[in-house]
Amino acid sequence: MSEKETTPELAISAAEVEAERRIEGRWEASFDEMDEQTAREWARLDVEDFGKINDKNLARFAAVTITDNMKNPAYKAEFERAGVQAVANIHALKAADDALVAEKEERKARESQAMRKERQERAMTWTPEEAAAQVQIDVVDYASALYDQLTNLRPVSRYETDYRLNDMAEYAKASPAYREALEKAVPDLAKEVAERNTMMAEQLAVTGTYVGKVTALSGTHLEQKVGRDPRDVMVHDRRALSGDDAALGNVVTISYEMGKGRLRNHDLAVEQRGMGR
């Protein structure tokens, strides 16, 4: 995902903005299913539009899309032929974007790790009475989030209940007193929290990046077509995912690091024309 949280340049022309948006709109060239003639034509159009962009940030955003499109051999061959002078710049800009994204994700990971460590250390010091009091708070908060999610009476993130479960799982792992109090208060929820801890441990081994269409969706899992063969399907645990929302038929990229997945919805990016990237 390109890093677009930057200060916009004052001298960006409307023509440059439109050129970058046209390149963004041709992201489907990255798919093997696209016919060779169209892929080559889109490569030539991208070469032409990229040549109109002088702003360094817009050029970087365009380079990210173009680099993704180069996964298609026909597109890559035509772009390297028609845009031979731009190829090195494209790769340099993509490398710069990767560095910005990595820096941001590393910062977020450090902040998240520090928060988790603080919660765990606090939980380890709880007395049985303090643990029981925290269980009461957490159970009420989880029930409230679940009710809001099921009834749609109050707009909430669909990840809200997962956040609550993750917090409880961390508390239960760090504090035997909390775990025992939860088992006594709501046995079924305690069982789900225990399963969450098991799931989180297993996900530490998950790595890789997956690109493809969403073929099935439930409250807890997302199924994605990731290859030519109909059997090439990846099933993702939505509890491990953050990022964009997704719906059936959307084309998404899901990248894992340390068991945590980041979802980028290509259809949403095109619809929003780059906003929020």
Can you give a write-up of this model?
There is one protein chain. The radius of gyration is 23 Å and the shape is elongated. The longest helix has 38 residues. A hairpin with a 7-residue loop joins strand 2 and strand 3. Helix 1 packs antiparallel against helix 2 and helix 2 runs parallel beside helix 4. By secondary structure, it is α+β, with helices and mostly antiparallel strands. The C terminus is likely disordered. The protein starts with 13 loop residues before the first helix and ends in a 5-residue tail after the last helix. Strands 3-2-1-5-6-4 form a six-stranded mixed sheet. It is 58% helix and 13% strand.
Keywords:
six-stranded mixed β-sheet, disordered C terminus, alpha+beta, 6 strands, 277 residues
List how many beta strands DSSP finds: 6
Order of helices and strands: HHHHHHHHHEEEEEEH
Helix proportion: 55-70%
Mean pLDDT: 84
Describe the main β-sheet briefly: 6 strands, mixed
**What structural class is derived from the secondary structure elements?**
alpha+beta
- Order of strands, main sheet, comes to 3-2-1-5-6-4
- Unreliable residue stretches: 5-9, 272-277
- What is the strand content? 5-15%
**Count of DSSP H/I helices:** 10
How far is the first residue's CA from the last residue's CA? 7 Å
**What value does the Rg take, in angstroms?**
23 Å
Gross morphology? elongated
